[in-house]
Every structure is written in C-alpha cells, then in structure tokens.
Specification:
The complex is a heterodimer of chains A (193) and B (150).
Chain A lengths: L2 H9 L3 H23 L2 H17 L10 H34 L4 H9 L7 H15 L3 H11 L5 H8 L3 H25 L3
Chain B lengths: L1 H11 L6 H5 L5 H13 L1 H20 L8 H54 L4 H4 L3 H4 L2 H8 L1
Helix pairs in contact in B: 1-3
The chains are: A mainly alpha (193), B mainly alpha (150).
C-alpha cells in the first residue's frame, strides 16, 4: 500500500490503514519526540498524541509533502509544547516549593532516575549533561539538531519539515553545535562530570 | 599562506571551538590536519575531545529506542475513549470560565452593593444622633436633679 492509498484509507476512517501507518512510523515518531523530551514514556505518550492528531485531521492532508514530513512537523511541535508546559509547571512548582520547603521535589527526582536502572552512573551523568545542554538551545536550533542527529535527516528534508531555507538549516545546525560545545566546554572546565 | 599561519597558530592555541566539527568531519582538509597536529601536542585539547566524544556518543546510545509492543493497542484504546472524553473536556473548557466569570461579576456587584449601602446609611444618619445622649441635661437639668435629692 503506497502513501496515497494509506492516507485515502485513513481519510475514510479505515482503522486497518491507520494501523499500518502507525506501525510503519511509530519508531520514527517516538525517536523524534525522545530527542526533544529525553524521556521514553513521555516520548511514547507524545507519539500517541501525534497519531491521534493525524487520524483526526487526515482530511486536511493535501499530499503536497511526504507523510513523514507531516509527522515530523507535528511531533516536533507537540514536543516543544510539552516542554513549554513543563517549564510553566516547574515555575509554579518552584513557587509551591518555597512554601512547602521542597518536600515534593525529591520524590520526583528519584522517579526519573528509576527510569533506566541498567545504565551506569557515568553514562547517566553524561546523558543528563547532554540533555541539559540541548534543552538550553533555542527552539529552532534544537529541532534542527534533533532531526539531524537523532533521525539522521539530510538538511534538505529538515528544511522541508521546518519550512525554512536550506541555508537557514545549515546555519541553525552550525550554531546549535557551537552552543552545545560551549556548554560542554564550560562543564569540562568546571569538572562537573 | 593563510592556512600556514592558521596552522602555526593552532600549534599553540587550543582548538576547543573546532572539536565538535572535527568529530563530525566538517572541517576542511587543511583545518583537519592542523587540528590533528595540535592534538598531538596539547593534552588538554585531547582530554576535551574525549569528553566531547563521550557526550555526543550518548545520542547514538539512546536513539532509535524499542517502542512498547502495546503501542497500537494503547493508541486504539485511546481512540475509542477519545470522543466522550473530548466532549466532556470541551464542556468543562466552556463552562469553567463562564462559571468563574459569573462568580467574579457577582462578587464585584455584591461588593459595590455592600459598599453603597454602607455609605448611604452613613449619610442618612444625622450627625447629631450620637451626641444626643450627651445632651440629656436638656431633658433633666442638674438643678432639678439636685432638688429631687433634697
């Protein structure tokens, strides 16, 4: 079944076509979300939201671009929205903590640590460091970098997903790498790992 | 000539800022050679290169994760429950702000009403009424009070 048939099926509400689409692209969508939210459970929830949105809005898909481009676009937007919401939550949580004396914070940290019990501590520290550095990147740099590094997308496809020029993608990824390197260098000098 | 000067400078100056591009193989042949030459003599840059490499390798380790085998089952279940939940959340989304707006308007109205009642009752009350108690002498002069005692 080619892309056009798949989309036509989904537009007609055919669950089988939708299942084929999900099974074909689920790993790609989860991986993209993971590159932005850095948590497997959140990434899977996010990927489910992406597919639900695809199912609900399939009739709007005109077929100008590939399904994967459409999926990447929704996945990156939704992941960024989640991060914005989390930032807002953290802000209110920090206010709450000033009143409760930070009693809720410790349980949350231990939960997130328990996600990957097999990883050794050094890897976990490196991973945390890299995630922190990536989270500090401006949104567009982060999307371009994630699509390039996690999904290994060529610059041309990133340009299509982000609806910007090829030169802009090159510039975004170059600046993202420079920023990441600066942050890692700062950490290296302070010996934080 | 320029590259010669650049490579000479690199022999002494740290190349921290080029290492991420060195790792990604994005430097020109000349620059790459110059960085490699510098790395031979600079232990600090070598150490940072290892640090950087280990950090960036984390992406390779964590990407392309195994997706839960129940991914579609869960998604399918969510699709079946979605319309009811959505209708409910839509109702809540409309009703909640409306309820709080009405509450706010009622609160403001009540406050204004209470305030105006308080100020109008103050105006109606004559200013002398509180002093009237002090003027009891007018009704019963002290002379007659003393005469009664006698």
């Amino acid at each position: 079944m080619d892309e056009a048939q798949l989309i036509k099926g989904i537009q007609q509400g055919d669950r089988k076509s939708f299942q084929i689409l999900v099974e074909t692209y689920q790993r790609m969508v989860v991986n993209t979300c993971l590159g932005i939210v850095h948590n497997q459970a959140d990434a899977e929830d996010m990927a489910q939201d992406v597919f639900l949105e695809i199912f609900r809005t399939a009739e709007n898909f005109r077929g100008d671009s590939k399904i994967s481009t459409w999926l990447y676009r929704i996945a990156t937007n939704r992941s960024l929205n989640l991060i914005r919401n989390n930032k807002r939550k953290r802000f209110f949580q920090s206010i709450e903590e000033t009143f409760t004396g930070g009693r809720n914070r410790t349980s949350e940290i231990s939960e997130s640590r328990g996600d990957q019990p097999d990883q050794n501590i050094a890897d976990q520290q490196r991973s945390d460091l890299l995630h922190r550095a990536m989270d500090r990147l401006p949104e567009k740099q982060r999307i371009a970098f994630t699509l390039n590094k996690y999904e290994e997308l060529p610059y041309q496809q990133i340009a299509e997903v982000m609806e910007i020029s090829l030169a802009s993608v090159e510039s975004l990824i170059h600046r993202a790498k420079k920023n990441l390197q600066e942050q890692l260098l700062d950490c290296y000098k302070k010996k934080c790992v | 000539m320029v590259s010669y000067i650049k490579s000479n400078k690199m022999k002494t100056k740290c190349v921290h800022k080029d290492l991420i591009f060195y790792l990604d193989n994005e430097l020109s042949v000349e620059m790459r050679a110059a960085v490699e030459k510098h790395l031979e003599i600079c232990a600090d840059c070598r150490s940072f290169l290892v640090f950087l490499q280990e950090g960036m390798q984390m992406i390779e380790k964590e990407k392309k994760p195994e997706v839960s085998p129940f991914f579609y089952t869960r998604l399918s279940a969510r699709m079946d429950e979605k319309p009811e939940h959505q209708a409910q959340s839509q109702w809540v989304r409309l009703a909640q702000p409306a309820f709080f707006s009405i509450l706010l308007v009622l609160g403001i109205y009540g406050g204004l009403k209470l305030g105006s009642n308080a100020s109008s009752s103050k105006e109606i009350r004559p200013a002398t009424s509180s002093i009237q108690m002090l003027n009891d002498f007018e009704d019963e002069p002290i002379e007659s009070f003393l005469l009664d005692k006698l």
